[in-house]
Amino acid sequence: MELRTIDERLSVSPQIAADDIARIKALGFRSLICNRPDGEGADQPTFEEIDRSAKSAGLETRYLPVQSGLVRDEDAAAFEGALRELPGPILAYCRTGTRSATLWSLSQAGKRPLPDILQKTKAAGYDMNGVARRIANGGKTPTETGDASFQVVIVGAGAGGISVAASLKARKPDLEIALIDPADIHYYQPGWTMVGGGIFDAQVTAKTMGSLIPSGVHWIKSAVAAFEPANNAVILDGCRVVKYDRLIVCPGLKLDWSKVKGLEETLGRNGVTSNYRYDLAPYTWQLVKEMKGGKAIFTQPPMPIKCAGAPQKAMYLSADAWKRRGVLSNIDIRFCNAGGVLFGVKEYVPALLEYVKAYEAELSFFHNLVEIDGPNRKATFQVSKPDTTPETVTYDFDFIHVCPPQTAPDFIRVSPLADAAGWVDVDQITLRHKSYDNVWALGDVMNAPNAKTAAAARKQAPVVADNVAADIDGRSPTAQYDGYGSCPLTVERGKIVLAEFGYGGALKPSFPSWLIDGTKPSHLAWLLKERMLPPLYWKAMLRGHEWLAKPEKITVAAE
């Protein structure tokens, strides 16, 4: 007997025997649902046998037989009724458990988000993507999908999505492209560090989405519920279906604030802030301006995260502001990093350590934030140093800048496109999906081992555009991505350590060292960040102009 938990009320299993009832009772189950018709298999016990043993053990039962491969809407409704009426916990079974898991999935339509349903069944060992359309349609079989169809569908209108749409349009102006994203506003997220440092106003980092969609690209203002790559289909909220010849996936990642206990309740007050949110970055600067003394903590969660340098950028700019106001000596600064190094590319670390020393900041490695008590100004960390027993420590704070834990979006993690860790599974050179030849990905959502930065997306977009265009023309991939990413580390107001690197930490400088030596703080790099990169983003990258981003041609066949 193999029991698989779906949620706190229901577990499912393959066929059980009368001899299993005593154990089922001992495990705390109070009811059984049989979803397998009698006579389906030669060695199958009848429901009457199961029912007799169950009744003698004090369990309630329900016989809801479902034909294999044919789960009707009325079957799902009957299952929902049984879940409501029977005492729990409940064990439902069929030949393999799949029918029972399917019935539960359909019964939860409209009660739980689709990704949550898919995640719970996936965790139990059942893939429900095949009925995702029905779940999205309220658990009912769609009678009219109203399919729209495009040559290329792009999921996500962030930096990667708009850029690759514009680059594709530049290569193939007549291409029918749809861009799917529910957001009204597009944000220049690299600017939020500067907002939190008092350099930019928040408003300059936001524009309406409609003003940025490339001309001739169809904008579908909706959220994605699921993918059916075997059917070349994207399912939208409300069960609308968009078909594609080729798919590009770039919805970014999910900031998982809820993973830190107490964080959501105190964000934006009690001295708790984050430059990872548009509405909170101004609060960061407000706190910095008001602080005259006390304890300041800056956190960094386990990788991967968006812009790995951003947590320490906030520390440097805050410390510089306190130094300029003459209050730095009154403030104890602590940088709590879940990892074991200050920065992942060693060549940039010496310059950063000089600033850590100058600001008298304490580095606390292997410290992962797990709980915040905002009203009492306490932050609790799990400390997991190598070869030691994990422990928890709690620090008082007057100011804390939090970088939230980050994951792939829910609808990605439960999709057939994801790898075991939940990220879109691509070839790191061509950015083409490893299992579906007509799918590509770029940006933060894919599993290539590169830094998740806007600069990386700027380089990836032309590569994907080139390779999609080549595929349309019947050719093999033509462009390769070398893992380029950039992190302008704002070590003080007016100076930046310009980290540029590719796969394996290989240095990838864009400028000669006599102009900008990325391993040393540079005022010219600051001017690049402050004055050149924002217009480059809005007026070049998002419009398909590939300045300093022309794709590198493949010289050897990519695996």
Automatic annotation (TrEMBL):
This is TIGR01244 family sulfur transferase. CDD domains: PTP-bact (cd14503). The keyword Transferase applies. The keyword Transferase applies. One of its GO terms (molecular function) is transferase activity. Keywords: Transferase. SUPFAM superfamilies: (Phosphotyrosine protein) phosphatases II, FAD/NAD(P)-binding domain. Residues 3-110 form the Beta-lactamase hydrolase-like protein phosphatase-like domain. InterPro entries: BLH_phosphatase-like, FAD/NAD-bd_sf, FAD/NAD-binding_dom, Prot-tyrosine_phosphatase-like, Sulphide_quinone_reductase. Residues 150-270 form the FAD/NAD(P)-binding domain.
